[in-house]
Amino acid sequence: MTPFMLSVQELLDGAPAPQAATVPSTPGPIPAATDTQVIVRSLAEQLVSEANAVLRGHGDLIRLDDEVGPGGLTFTLGYRDRSARVQTAMSGRTALVRLVLDGRAEDEPRQLSSQGELQALVLSLIVD
Fold first, then answer.
1. pLDDT tens across 62-117, in order?
2. For site-directed labelling of 106, which of 20, 22, 26, 62 has its Cα 20 to 30 A away?
3. How many beta carbons lie within 10 A of that of residue 121, not counting itself?
4. Spatial contact of 8 and 54, defined as CB atoms under 8 Å apart
């Protein structure tokens, strides 16, 4: 088992979930934001696969849904009634990343403080 899979198992055994650290989101160049979105999305797919390998014997699995459309790239992680949406919205020459948890966006856009915080985000979805 990978270290992340062990973390998922620890949650199922009663360990507290970490909270993902976020920072205010500021507009940035589209190429950099797009690159980051693709990297984070790829990591999300890996983490969902690992988590679901552990969760498979416990019922519900984490969902990973993509949305691509004019002006944005988005993926949503869902588990039971909880969700985390990572959106990169493009306008003109800039892009803005926004993290939306359980359908509620902050007044000021926020994003994960680092790619490493994605693990904490996935784990936080699993805990009731």
1. 999 999 888 899 999 999 999 999 999 999 999 999 999 988 877 899 999 988 89
2. 62
3. 23
4. yes
